[in-house]
Amino acid sequence: MSKLLRHTPEEYGLALDAEDGSCPVNALLQTIQKQPRWAWVRHEDIEQVVRQSDKQRYELTQGRIKARYGHSKGKIRYEKGEPPAILFHGTNRQALPSIMETGLLPMGRQYVHLSEGTHFASLAGSRRGALVMLQVDTILAKQAGVVFYYAGNEVWLAESVPRQCCSLSAIAGKEMLKDGK
Ligand code: HQG
Q1: What is the pLDDT of residue 170?
Q2: pLDDT given for residue 73 in this prediction
Q3: 51 assigned to some structural domain
Q4: CA of 159: how far to CAs of 9, 12, 112, in Å?
Q5: Residue 38 belongs to what domain range?
Q6: Average pLDDT over residues 15-31
């Protein structure tokens, strides 16, 4: 579903709305069922994935489904939002020098992903090696011209975040020491 709703829908002939990245859930279902190994998938299975996704990646309303965040292609439009003063970004030790030089960049996605709490950020940052927790001063970032967008489920997005707004998170640092990492 992530592949279809975030990354390469065109490879499978699925058309997503240019504004919000949604499509009729029936169109998604038919696209999935065309793949022989997924032919058994039913509407209820999609509903279950939406409901049980640990990070609440998808939204299904009024017969349409979309990925809330994480897109690599297709620039989804979001409403501007007022984030909390601090947001978190989990990354890995190897990426740190580059981030401290250029700030946070979207890399392979359309936006930089930030979160209100450290849990979600830890999951993201731990995927590629030793976790490093950064915190973003959103007040400073807004002064620098950064616009924040709310994607739901405590996830915030930005085009980029200048390096002077990013610092190592003391809160998360303590948690990591407690865990013996
Ligand atoms: C890093 C997953 C070098 C950044 C997650 C990250 C999230 C830089 C990687 C969501 C950099 C990009 C997004 C710079 C950023 N130099 N490295 N200037 N700026 N980076 O996967 O935020 O499971 O595209 O720290 O949990 O890790 O797919 O972004 O390590 O929610 O639903 O470049 O995707 O959710 O990696 O993850 P990603 P992300 P899902």
Answers
A1: 79
A2: 85
A3: yes
A4: 23, 28, 6
A5: 2-67
A6: 97
